[in-house]
Amino acid sequence: MGSCMYPVERGAYKLLSEIGSGVSAVVYKAQCLPLNSTVVAIKVIDLERSRPNLLDDVRRETKAMSLLSHPNILTAHCSFTVGRHLWVVMPYMAAGSLHSILSSSFPHGLPEPSIALLLKHTLLALHYLHAQGLLHRDIKASNILLDSNGSVKLADFGVSASIYEPLSSAATFSPFFNDLVGTPYWMAPEVIHSHVGYGFKADIWSFGITALELAHGRPPLSHLPPSKSLVIRITNRFRLNHDDHYHHHQYHYLDDEDAKKKNKKNKKKFSKGFKDMVASCLAQDPSKRPSAEKLLKHPFFKNCKSPDHLVRHVLQGLPVIEERLKESPSSVDGDDDDNNGSGGVTKIRRISGWNFNEDIFGLNPVFPCEKKEDPSPISSSFYSSSFLEGGGNDGDRKRDDHVKVREEENKKDDEIHEEGNDPGLLGWKSRTAETLVPGLISLLNSLSLEKEMVMNVLESCRGEGMGIGDWESKEEEREQRLVDMVGKLQRTVDGLTIQLKGESAKNAALEKELQGLKDKNLT
Amino acid sequence: MKGLFKSKPKTPAEVVRQTRDLLVYADMNWNSRETKREEKMAELSKLIRELKSILYGNSESEPVTEACAQLTQEFFKENTLRLLIICLPKLNLEARKDATQVVANLQRQQVHSRLIASDHLEANKDLMDILISGYENMDIALHYGAMLRECIRHQSIARYVLESDHMKKFFDYIQLPNFDIASDASATFKELLTRHKSTVAEFLTKNYDWFFAEFNSKLLESANYITRRQAIKLLGDMLLDRSNSSVMMRYVSSKDNLRIMMNLLRESSKNIQIEAFHVFKLFAANQNKPPEIVSILIANRSKLLRFFSDFKMDKENEQFEADKAQVIKEIAALEPRDRP
């Protein structure tokens, strides 16, 4: 273990420059003075940030890191506290994250041979993690780092979990987890519907999304404006009729001429093997997705080039990390979530159906097509009734295998929503980097806020009834009741889904029996 | 078709016996010929991995109860556990992790509805001494630490550790500069002081004086932020546990303890303030406050009331607000009792 070498005191390190930041952590480029001023990366985490279980997350992350050893996994040299901050000293990955490489130099994606190589090394890391009984749970381009020699490392174990170390002391060994983690675009359907529980195959899904991200320069659906209303907008029926969100994006954002060229180019760009590999990762049914081990044997990963290839084709001429940071000062990724303090968020619509479209090499979301959703500005009373109609509709519940709807409201959002409906006004390219990340963060925020609100309601229901004072508190109360209702509906829906599964299992058994009887009759 | 010529699969008991043989070899022949030793160590790593997959299952199959029982029985028949613990530093990282998971799992395996691991450890308590000393060796600290926490799931073993001299060492271990190791030690410390209620109550009652003297001076008054934060949280957990009520009464009758809490309330860290409040409220709510406590509270009354009027959690919390109102009421109503 190299950890003995690196001193565990602040004075031994000299911070050089900031190379990334999240809500509760900043990453610096630094030198370790006693070790010939070796360059390292130091993640400085503020332990005082409000999220109460941050400390546990940090512990899990550092522990996971210090017990791992694989060439494609970023591990820590050491970690120690400095006042209320934790310093995690790591190898410096000079070329930065694939996300920053994409946004600075490859906005339309990387060439396929480079993708194959990057994905293969990521997959080796994933295979190692899974064999350790660990889930990564946040695979995406911003968590894949490159060194100047072309070596690839998977980073950020902030949300990883171990099947050998159940978080509850109940201690049943189960490879399933029910807490919601990850970053929305990359999340697998069964993670979003976390009542089903999920396992290693969720990482495989995110791996598939990451493949699309590397191919196109951004994850699928990310062309949708990253405001808080982001998720609603996809439900707009007009948009749903577009069969290709990548295509759609180009159609709207580039000149017609350009778009046509690009489209032609894009359609031919990827090999059958690549498409097939991604398609297998994005199978709806987690059990149909290959394991990391099996995926490594896919023909797409045969004949991969050497890391040298990356140096020549990807890293050459790339601006250094600090320069890239100046161009887009937004955070490195959306890993931290609390505090955006943006007040009563938001309409959240969950998408759970994703159909991978091999032709266009992207995802088509599945939505409740008959849902009455009026995208016009709405008052809170309108909101409540529309929600009740939607959520209370029996037909919808039956389809709920595909769709969950949870919403709250925020009036301000509607303006953004309106404005955003005309995407032609906005240059996509320039907006990607700075708007995507905050969008993701606010989406995640709204999820946790939502959870918190439901918790509050549950708590206040247990206690005495709320005092009905002034008008505002009534409104608040009504809003809370709505949230409560959402919670209840969600549970009902979950219950029904489970019942449905049970019924279809029974049904299948009966059909089998019937078939057996028929066969007997025939013979 | 390589599989056709494979020898008959080993029984779980055979895997254990082969592991033990190789552990004996590893223990004795550390200086034998390089290549031969490497071969044997590789074989040993493979066997430990096999033990793990019998106990935990693998991607193809779930664990089989009968196989687990056989393995467990054979494992504790002789000194395999001791050998495994002693040889751990000689294993490579992957084998160490596997070994740790095997030992952890074995603590929960029942044979004829008995936890035979517990019986085995009872008879080999000195193994705990070895595991605890692991905190002094960075390379193995996390592995031994994880094993240790599994072992103290057994009440009698936890009692042994609590009553041993090792308890004193934990006050230093949890302040080690290495964050992972310090965290691991504090997780173990917390487990020891919260898991087995009756044992903990007995320990705290018997060892009250030295334990809280150390706890206050080394942890609550530590210069280290993370130490103070964890210690005040743990103190709250201990004192608010019903089974420790007599210890709590004793703690909240001391003016020195009160002074420490009031200092923690003034910290700039919100997390520490909130946790300190949960302990401070016990001093205020005590219906039999000793006169010295009363006089400190009266002397600081206006400052305290001003402090509490601005003291809020980031998120609204009804219980917290109710507690605060109660504390304010108690302090406001205090009358000096030493001058009738």
The main sheet of chain A orders its strands as 1-2-3-5-4
Q: For the record, what is the CATH homologous superfamily label of the domain at 198-339 in chain B?
A: Leucine-rich Repeat Variant
Q: Do you know the CATH topology of the domain at 96-164 and 177-240 and 271-318 in chain A?
A: Transferase(Phosphotransferase), domain 1
How many strands in all of chain A? 14
Q: Please give the alpha-carbon distance between the first and last residues of chain A.
A: 68 Å
Q: Largest interface, counted with CB-CB under 8 A?
A: A-B, 34 and 29 residues
What do these coordinates show?
The complex is a heterodimer of chains A (523) and B (340). Chain A is built from 18 helices and 14 strands. Chain A is an alpha+beta fold. Among the domains of chain A are: 10-91, Phosphorylase Kinase, domain 1 (2-Layer Sandwich); 96-164 and 177-240 and 271-318, Transferase(Phosphotransferase) domain 1 (Transferase(Phosphotransferase), domain 1, Orthogonal Bundle), CATH 1.10.510; 492-522. Chain A has a 5-stranded antiparallel beta sheet. In chain A, a hairpin with a 4-residue loop joins strand 12 and strand 13. Chain A starts with 12 loop residues before the first strand and ends with a helix. In chain A, 41% of the residues are buried. Chain B has 340 residues and is mainly alpha-helical. In chain B, 71% of the residues lie in helices and 1% in strands. Chain B has helices at 12-28, 34-56, 65-77, 80-87, 93-106, 116-123, 126-133, 141-151, 155-163, 166-173, 179-194, 197-206, 208-220, 225-239, 245-251, 255-265, 270-285, 291-299, 301-310, 318-332; strands at residues 110-111, 114-115. In chain B, helix 1 runs parallel beside helix 3, helix 14 (225-239) packs parallel to helix 17 (270-285) and helix 19 (301-310) runs antiparallel to helix 20 (318-332). The longest helix of chain B has 23 residues, at 34-56. Chain B starts with 11 loop residues before the first helix and ends in an 8-residue tail after the last helix. The chains are: A alpha+beta (523), B mainly alpha (340). The A-B interface holds A 1, 3-4, 8-9, 47-48, 50, 55, 59, 62-63, 66-67, 69, 78-81, 83-84, 86, 132-133, 164, 171, 173, 291, 293, 452, 456, 459-460, 463 and B 56, 59, 93-94, 97, 101, 104, 108, 138-139, 142, 177-180, 183-184, 187, 224-226, 229, 269-271, 314-316, 318.
